[in-house]
Fold this protein.
Amino acid sequence: MTTPDIGGASRPSAGALRLVEGRTSEPRTVDISDYLRAVASHCPFLMPSVARGLTGWTVYEIAGDAQAAEVEAELFHAGVQAAEWIRPLTTRRHGPLLCENIVLLGDAAADHRELMAWPHWALKHLYGPVGLMFGKFWTGEEGTDRQGRRIPSPPFSFLTVRCAVRPVDPRFLADTPDLARSLSTAVDDGREVFQGLPYEWKAVKTWASSLLSPQPPLPPPNRPAAFRSG
């Protein structure tokens, strides 16, 4: 996979993820139609975004010999790429409906939930202060929304990034109150979100590890609402 040029240098790929399908609003390699219809009642923003072609999908497959740390690194870089794609578009008409999804296919030594945990944890802390919300969903996940309704299980694993809904999203971040406060007043002023942090996964993960209090970056059994994940 390729990564964006941030901080003066693009980062080499270890080949842990193979690009199956480049960004598209109508992927052919994964079936999204039934799932989107099933979860639409849990998210009022989803179908308006889909109808305008503002929900994008990029599909990757884990290489057979990939190590977990390599997959984490490339998932993280894919998340950065998706976030930086969205940032300059948020002020356009219908910009708040933008949503990018990074699909993860294939077997690995670690399960998809575990592989996405650290990249998601780092990405949401980097981009929350500029008004973007990251979420994670994995094959077989079970959950309920705020009304106690069952949320359909995803047919594949994916990271998602979208514009934050400031009056609503901070409540999904109760375990990270500092981030919740930051998100509630977030303004994207064009800043470099790394702010001196090296753009290498090892360094980013070390930084992310310092943010563990009060909760580690593992998802709870249930989430409050589909596609509105924290």
